[in-house]
Amino acid sequence: MSIRNSAAEMAEALAKKEISAVELANQHYAQIEAVDKDVHAFLHLDKAGALAQAESIDKKRAAGEKLSPLAGVPLALKDVLVQKGVPTTCGSKMLEGWRPPYDATVVAKLKDAGIVILGKTNMDEFAMGSSTENSAYGPTHNPWDLTRIPGGSGGGSAAALAAFEAPLAIGTDTGGSIRQPAAVTATVGVKPTYGGVSRYGLVAFSSSLDQAGPCARTVLDTAMLHQSIAGFDPKDSTSINHAVPDVVAAAKKKDVKGLKIGIVKQLSGAGYQKGVENKFNDAVAELVKLGAEIVEVSCPNFEYALAAYYLIAPSECSSNLARFDSMRFGIRIGDDGSKGAEEVMNLTRQVGFGREVKRRIILGTYALSSGYYDAYYGSAQKVRTLIKRDFDAAFEKCDVLVSPTAPTTAFKIGEKSEDPLAMYLNDIATIPVNLAGVGGMSLPCGLADEDNLPVGFQIMSPAMKDDRMYLVGGALEAALLSKWGKPILDFAPRLAGSK
Amino acid sequence: MSLNYDQAIEKYEPTLGLEVHVELNTKSKMFCGCATEFGAEPNTQTCPVCLGLPGALPVVNKTAIESSILIGLALNCSIAPFSRFARKNYFYPDMPKNFQTSQYDEPICINGFLDVEIESDEGNKVFRIEIERVHMEEDTGKSLHVGGSTGRIHGAEYSLLDYNRAGIPLVEIVTKIVPNTGKYAPQVARAYVAALRDILRGLKVSDVKMEQGSLRCDVNLSLAPSGSGELGTRSETKNVNSLRSVETAVSGEIVRQANRLQSGEKIVQETRHFLEESGETRPGRSKEKAEDYRYFPEPDLVPVVPDNKWIDELRKTLPEKPADRRKRLQSEWSVPEKEMTAMVNAELLDTVEETVKLGADPTKARSWWLGEISRIANERDVVATELISVTAVAQIINLINQGELTDKLARQVVDGVIAGEGTPAEVISKRGLKVVSDDGALMKAIEDAIAAQPDTAERVRGGNIPAAGALIGAVMKATGGQADAAKVRELLLKHLGQ
């Protein structure tokens, strides 16, 4: 048993008592100790809490209690989900030192499933960004090349998986923050159908787009984690009261014969790196070999998705982030007795928020202002409806849609940080999924010829048909594995000190 | 020279608009499970949701929706098949999320009306108040600004925040403009708020206690030259928290605006604060530069889509309309119109009805509540029902009817109960107020009197009947005046063989 095994394999070893949950957690902490000074995937380690949970799982197992499939397996939690008593910063100075008094529903479900939460992972501040460079606590480095970004906003979670610091991770995806990091680190990440996983306790960036989801190194692991965190939550009004599709069975099926797979015309061409397109096409060829039928579909309104997204998300964020006012939690600046409440709020927000967050708050405040609302927010909502219709029409012709996850492989840290628009373009292929509320998965489909860096393959499913992503992903992953002869992460350079 | 009310109303025609905020009496808050009890220790009725902690999400209270629909139905509104919450964005320390979740352009009830009756020079007159909308929102927390002279946030040394009230469900009932009330504007405004309060009380959806803030009224008022048919610039007076204040706020604003217009000044569109002590208003923030609340649909909540079956079921539970009830009670109790109006104006109709339900005679119930008890209440400037309970009054009236108390004694019992000496029974026993009708007790007093004045007794025995007066007087004195003198006389004479 090694930290390079899959979560499913770890779970099996735990079940057979070949290893204890405490030992497994300690192995991962040793790896974190060895590599995280270079990777910087974690913001906070909750060693005491994790080991206590591991110990209790070991005791239950020894006592012969029936445990959940992933009981005892370690996990890295994106720092945007609140965990009772454990610092939660959202990658922002604003929340430095804040310990939430409650658990997010996802966290409660993880705990119930006996999963061991190692710590909180780095992210772009309040999940705004595509590179994790916007974290107030410094960037995370891509384990494939430490000078490159691990994607964002969930770069910490993806890097932790790729650096074998954890076999499972939780991400959140508002415009691609699970899938794009998965793509550039050669890991697997799923944004479930909107409403499929509770948002209660997920610190909101854009409420109508945010969705927490599972991240792992294999499709099956991702499915098992998906199963553990999904389901109706009465505390989230937008949660779907519907049975969770059997994603684990779908991941194991590995049969896509006769399945209709649509290639979205608009998600290729200009702006997409050659090597990315090549690996994507190779993967499509594998699916054909497996008996899937390929259909080309057109989603004409996807062209406006990025523009609509950068109106809706900042608008909602300008309101969601208003609560960070220093009154009840987080940092407080300038409270020296000489200043009024409003001035203290202003100073706190000036100091507490980073540039990208401020940029989006200003954008959103403007877009919602009277006289501009119809032209900006109103129009963006109409575009959103049109994009949903594009998906509806496409899903009438095919079972799933596919595209490259991100237009390029991982870029250098600092390369785009002065050019927000270039940065925003990274999410061009992932954003339509959030706007429509459908499901999206990214799994690795190879290394680009020109830079030897991972390329992500995106699978999109209709709402509440998340099992289809796992069906196609599981089959494609198996085919590629046998083609490559070993897991893709084995092609990555070994990190200094790695166990 | 400044105009008085009569002069003001001669020159200018007022147009009213009323916004009433009602705190619903649901057990839990609008978007979370926290308790709503009034007067709890600060910040003890809070949770991540109503404190606006990062990550927390709202879930709509179904009872609050039911109450809102009931209010809409009682006010003859259409219930919207689809309504939504929106976010009203502005910063204030007592607003946890720095946005208020409120309905905006898609309210739950629209287009209703309420008929109100006032006494006019030509007898009773009915005005139809059209309702524009009934919508749901959440209350804010409470700020207490400590130090400084104004009690406002500016100039305060520090502020204390209590979030117990944050998230309490509110319903806002907004009228369309109310034109053509003429000089009756103040009475119409008051009658509307009173009628609305009666309806809400009847629906049992709110405590409607204006003094506790569970019913708050904002008065919009504008003037235009009489006969011009124009609509003037309005002011919005907030904090109008009693029926009397509604009336004075309207008449006061009419006089203030008329005098400004008269002297050629403009009316500024602004929020004004009503000062309870003086009955005047003082300017608040100017609304000339309208605040931009950046409303947008609340993405954390799903639309409210009540099905017709539910609405019909709620309609069936609507109680009798207050106006109908008034007519019914008037005939049941055989009360003249004038007395009925008196009870309504004194806001004691419910109280009298409850007293009657406890077995009291309607005429006596009315006269006790409107008479003695109201007199004491007025003296002390309190509400009659705060002085004494309905149960106590009913018990006292029943004792009078049973001959256990005389009216004179009953007044003493009322005094005792008000003074906190206990229930009527306790007061009677402590003060020894019972009508002494018990023959045994009387006989003892009579025997004592005879023993004390044997000569007088002898004279009576001998046929000198008028001499009995001295003995009767002694008995009355001994019983503290609580005995029935006729009865004493009868027993005494019989005892002395006469």
TrEMBL record, chain A:
Recorded catalytic activity of this chain's protein: L-glutamyl-tRNA(Gln) + L-glutamine + ATP + H2O = L-glutaminyl-tRNA(Gln) + L-glutamate + ADP + phosphate + H(+)
Domain Amidase intervals: 24-468
Pfam family of the protein (one): Amidase
InterPro entries linked: Amidase, Amidase_CS, Amidase_dom, AS_sf, GatA
Keyword Ligase: yes
Biological process terms in GO annotation: translation
Keywords for the protein's UniProt record, in alphabetical order: ATP-binding, Ligase, Nucleotide-binding, Protein biosynthesis
GO MF term set: ATP binding; glutaminyl-tRNA synthase (glutamine-hydrolyzing) activity
Gene Ontology CC annotations of this record: glutamyl-tRNA(Gln) amidotransferase complex; mitochondrion
Enzyme Commission number, as recorded: 6.3.5.7
HAMAP family on file: GatA (MF_00120)
Family in the record: Belongs to the amidase family. GatA subfamily.
Protein name, as recorded: glutaminyl-tRNA synthase (glutamine-hydrolyzing)
Automatic annotation (TrEMBL), chain B:
SMART domains the UniProt entry points to: GatB_Yqey
GO terms, molecular function: ATP binding; glutaminyl-tRNA synthase (glutamine-hydrolyzing) activity
GO biological process: glutaminyl-tRNAGln biosynthesis via transamidation; translation
UniProt entry tagged with the keyword Cytoplasm: no
Pfam family, one: GatB_N
Domain Asn/Gln amidotransferase: 350-496
InterPro entries: Asn/Gln-tRNA_amidoTrfase_suB/E (IPR017959), Asn/Gln-tRNA_Trfase_suB/E_cat (IPR006075), Asn/Gln_amidotransferase (IPR018027), Asn/Gln_tRNA_amidoTrase-B-like (IPR003789), GatB (IPR004413), GatB_Yqey_C_2 (IPR023168), Gln_synth/guanido_kin_cat_dom (IPR014746)
The UniProt record lists the keyword ATP-binding: yes
Catalytic activity: L-glutamyl-tRNA(Gln) + L-glutamine + ATP + H2O = L-glutaminyl-tRNA(Gln) + L-glutamate + ADP + phosphate + H(+)
Keywords assigned: ATP-binding, Ligase, Nucleotide-binding, Protein biosynthesis
Family: Belongs to the GatB/GatE family. GatB subfamily.
HAMAP family with a match to the protein in the record: GatB
Name listed for the protein in its UniProt record: Unannotated protein
Source organism per UniProt: freshwater metagenome
